[in-house]
Amino acid sequence: MTRTLLLLLSLVAGAARADCPPTPALPTAAQTASWAAAAPDRGPLWRISRGGHSSFLFGSLHIGKADWAYPGPALRRAWDETEVLAVELDPADIAPALAALPPPAPLPPGLARRVDAQARVACLPPGVLAAFPVMLQLSTLTLLEARRDGFDVGWGQDLMLLNRAKAEGRPVQSLETPQEQLAALEPTAAELPEVVDGALKQLQRGQMRTPLRKLADTWVRGDMKTLADYARWCGCADTPAERAWFKRLNDDRNLALAERITALHGAGQRLLVAVGALHMTGPQGLPKLLAAQGFTVEPVHPAK
């Protein structure tokens, strides 16, 4: 999931039937104060040091629950010790890129009917997703399904940090362009039927929620070993086409992300980098790539 999905979710109408994904309820002032005061650390956090100064690398989750949208003690200290927030993509850059996209190629009729049927299950207005690439459509349907378990993109950690940065006037650096993210998200023409079919089967069979819950629980604990095995238990990388698409979406972006983090840090900026936690896993994970570029990488949470 990417910040691109925020724009799509803004199109979602309120729930009209009892079986619709519930619309997230805004917390009360008392809840906000209580959750902010008692927030524990969630998600993996590293200190990365090179050239005489330190930055921080935070593995974020793009969805969350209402009480997760507040930083714990270690993340607050990382905020205080840095001066620039670096994220995959600033949502402010999304709308122009989406507006410039050519109309998506039509899906085969059978797949198109299945996407439309799933949009009706999610209580979306007819045709509201049609102008967007199919993987953004499916990602939006997945996020709506996650609402049934109390998750929402509005409570994601990176959005929480972005809102705080903009409220405080902290500079925000995007590590990618919208065009790069959209290109990574889309399967090739040969992969597309299999990848779309796999995602639709998970949605239609009600099999999307279990891996999403496991992902969230694993992220909260900072369990990097289980996160590294995500492709084995997500149900989203079971075929050669799905595995090729997932590798391009996740692993293949990491080298460019690491190079841009290195360049910003090397320019003397003390960064808090918030990038999706799955980019921290495996031999091409960001902590290993940054260590290979001369950074001292120290776990902060969970601490060794």
TrEMBL record:
Keywords: Signal. This is TraB/GumN family protein. Residues 1-18 form the signal peptide. CDD domains: Tiki. It comes from the Bacteria.
